[in-house]
Amino acid sequence: MLQCSLTEHAAECFFGDERLSNLLWQLLLQPTEGLESDRWHQLQDDFYHLLVEGVEARYPREHRLTDVRQLMGRMLDGYFLLTSKLPWLDELQQRLLQRNGDLLCYQEGKVQAYVRLAAGIDPTLLAGRHLAQWLDEMPQPHANDIRRVVSAQRAFFAPEGNSSLPFAEGHVHLGGITADSVILDDYLLAGGELELNGKVSLWQHEQYNSLQPLLHRARQLLVLLLQPSEPLLQCEMLDGHSRDSQNSESNQSCRQENWSQHLAQLTLTMDMPIRKPDWLLLSACQHVAELGSADWLLGEFALTMVRGEANRWLWLHLYLCRRYSEDNSPPLQRAAILCFWQTINQLRRSLIMDGHGLTRFAERSFNSVMRRNSRGHDNIRRLLPVIGDVAEIKSGPLAFKPKLVGEIARGLFANASLSLPKPPYIFGESEIQIDMQALSTIQELERWQFCGHFSRSSPHKQGLRPKFDGKKLWKDADKLMRNLESASGWNTAEFLGGKLNSNFHFQPARWFRGLDVAGDENALKIEWFAPVLRWLRSGFKSLPDGERASKGFHLSIHAGEDYAHPASGMRHIDETVRFCEMREGDRLGHALALGMVPKEWTMRQGEMMLPLDEHLDNLVWLWHHASVLSGVLPLAQQVLPLFERRIARFWRLSLWWQVPDLMVVSGDRNDKVAVDQTAGFEASPLRHVMPADLYQAWLLRRNCFYRLSEVGDSWLVNSKEVSALPDHVFLSENSTLASKLYRARHNWLSTLNEAPLVIVRMGDEAAAHGGFSTKFGCETDEDILEDVDTTVELDFMHALQDWLLTEYDKLGLIIEANPTSNVYIARLRSHTEHPIFRWCPPDESVLELGGTANIYGLRRGPVRVLVNTDDPGIMPTTLRTEFLLLKEAAIDLGIGRTVAERWLEELRIYGIEQFRRNHLPVFETI
Predict the structure, then answer these.
(1) N or C: lower Cβ tally within 10 Å for the chain?
(2) pTM for this prediction
(3) Strand pairing report for 168-173 and 390-395
(4) What is the pLDDT of residue 673?
(5) 5-40 as b/e: b if 16+ CB within 10 A
C-alpha cells in the first residue's frame, strides 16, 4: 500500500472514520431544538478524542501521539459545524487541484499525493468544494457557465490528454473499471440492494452485516438532504412579508427549529423502503431559486438525474458543499452533510483494495457484496477519455456475447456523442450505407478488443488444497469456440445490421483477440490451464463458410504478481512461459517476481510460508538454473551444493514417494487416496530420485492429467488430445523416473490434503546447516517445518531474475506493468520502487556492466514493457494518471524531466503499436 503522511491520514479519518460518523449519527437521531452550550462543548471534546484515537487505531504506532494531538487541536478550534470551515478540505483542494480553462484537474506535480488521497476520500468532494467556492467569486458566473464547467469535468479529474497523442490500454478488467461514484449512485439513487446470492463466504456475510446499516444511513441522510430549504422557511413568509424583512437571527432560529423537526423523520423511516425523489418535480420546484444558491444547484442535480448525465455525482457533491457553506445553514444540517460524506467514504473504502496479496483482492475487493455494474457510458468515459485512445478489455471468455458487446458499443457511441445511422427506409436496418456517419460509428467500434481470462481463483477451505475441474474447463473452451462461430444476435442496430448488411463484411469474432488466466495464482497453477490455451490457439480450426483468415490469439497471462517466496514467483512465470509455449508478442501480466529484489522483498516479508510441495518445487527449479549458469556465474557454483542438500532433506519429508495402493479408495468412489500402510522411505521405489529426475517430472506438468486419464495408453485421435499431451509417449510407457514421479504426484494431489507447511526465513550459513530450535521445529511438529535462505542464495535469485529477463526478451515477450495496482497488491511503498525502473529504465546507463540494474552482467538491455491500469475503479487511477505517476517517480529518482518524458513517450507509442499489431478489423467495407 501507498505510504501516507500524518496530515493525509488525519484527513482520511476526518472524512471517513466509523466512530466519528456514528457520533454524528447519534446526535442527529436525538430529538432536540438545538445544541445547548454544555452539550456543544462536549461534542467538540468527543470529536477531538475520537479523531485522535481514530488515527491511532487505523495506523497504530505509525505517528507520534504528541504530533497527532497537536494537529487535531489546531484543526478543531471550537467552531466545528458553527461555520463553513472544513478542516483539511480547503487546504487539500488548493494544494492538489488546479484550473485549466473550464477544466478542474489535479496538479501533475502532485499526482502521487492525489492518488494517495483518492484511496481514502472521494476526490469528487475536493472538486465540489472548489467549485462551490468559485460560485462566490466576482464576477459571479452565469447559469450557462456553471452548467458548462460542471458538465465538462473529466473522470478522476485527470489532466486532459493531447488528442494527437492517443494512449493504449493493454491490461484492464471490465469488472474493475467501474468508478466508485457510479457504484454508490446505483445503490443510493437507483434503488440497488446488497444481496447475498448462492454460496457466500463468512467474510461476505460479515461485510454484508457491516455495509447494510451504512447503506441505510446514507439513504436516510440523502433523502433528508435533498429537501429544499424553501419549505423549511415558510415561517419566514408571514403576512406577505418577504424573507428580507426578517432579521437573520430569526431566520436562523426558524430554520434550526424546522431542521429539528425533520430530523425526527430519521428514526421513523430507518427501516422503511426509500422512495426515490421525483426528479422532475424537484427540479421544477427550484426554477425560481437564486442563481448559484444551494437550492438552484439542487434543481440542476435533479435534471442531471433525469438525463442520466455522467457528472451527476459531482453535481450532488457541489450541492452539498454549497449547502454546508451557506451562512444560514444550521449546525445540525452541517452535521448531517458531514455524516453523509463520512458514511459514503466508508462505503467507498470497502470497494478499494486495501492490503497486500492477490487472495485478499480476489476474495474481498473484487467480490464485494456491493456489486459492480461493469458496463455503461461512465465506464467507457473513464477508459477511453480522448478520441484515438484504444483498449484491450479483459473479462471471462464466455462473457463475449452480443449482449455485452452491444452494451460496450452503446457506451462508445454515448462517449463520442454519436447517434446510430438511420436506415434508408422502414425495415431497412440491414442496408445502412457506408457514409461519413457510418464510418465514424465503425471507427468507434474498432477502438477496442477483447481478451478472455479463465479464472484460477478457488473458494478457500481450511486444510484442503483447491480442486481443479478439468472437465468443466475443456467444456468451457468448447463453448467459447462455438460462441465465436455463432451468428445469432449480431444483426442489430449497434452493429449496423451485422452480417445482414451487404455493404461490409462483419466478423465479430475478430474482437476476441487474447487469452489470459487471471485470479489468485496461489490457488490453481498455470499447469492446469496451459493445455487448453495451447489448443485454443493451435490454429487451422474450422470456421463458417465466408469467414476470412484471421491471426491466432495472443497470450496476456497473469504471472508472478503475488507469491509466498521470490523463487515461487519466478517459477510461476517460467511455468507460464514454458507450459503455454509463449512466443513473440505474448505478454506476462505484472511479473513482479522478475523485478523486486529478492533480498529486499524477503526482509520486508519476514517469514515466508509455503506448502512443502511448493518449497520442494522451488528448490528443484533453482537447482536446475544454478546448474545451467554454473559455467558463467561463480555465484551459481556456490549455491549448487546448498540446493542439493536442501532437496535431499525435503524430498525425504515429502509424500510423493509414498506410492499409493490404488485398490483402496475413500468414501467417495472417485477419490483415490494414499493409505497409511505405505512402505517407509528406504523401501520406496522412488527413494533414489535425483534433482534432475524431479526437474524432468516438473517439465512433464505441461501435460493435461485430465486428458491423460481419459486417453490412457490409447492413440491420440483429435486436436485436443494432441495439444494437451505433447509427452504422451513417455507418460503412456511410464518407464522413466520422471513419468513415475508425474503420476505419483497427481495421485497424491487427488487427495486434496494440504502438505506440511514450511516456514522459510533469511539467515546465515550456520542457521542453514544447524536449523532452528523452536517449538515449530521439524523434529517436534510434522505439519510445520523450517528452512533457511542464505544471503548468497538470495543473491543468486537476484542474478537469476536478470538472466530470465534476458531469455524472455530473446523470445520476444512483453511485460505488462500496472503501477498503481502493483503498489496496492505487492510490497511496494511508492511508485519509485516499481520494477519498471529496472526492466526498462529511463536512464539506460544503469544497465551497463556492474550498474544497479545489471550487477551480475547478465542483462543485454531493456526489456519491452506496456503500461496499464488493471482495475482503475478498485485501485483509483486512469491510464494517463499512471504515466504521470511514473514521471513523478522518475524525477524523484533523479531522472531529468526531459529524459523521463522521452522515456514515457516511447512507452506510449509502443502501447499503440502493440494494440495495432494484435487488432483485426471487425468491419471491412466492400
Answers:
(1) C
(2) 0.91
(3) parallel
(4) 42
(5) eeebbbbbbbbbbbbbbbbbbebbeeebeebeeeeb
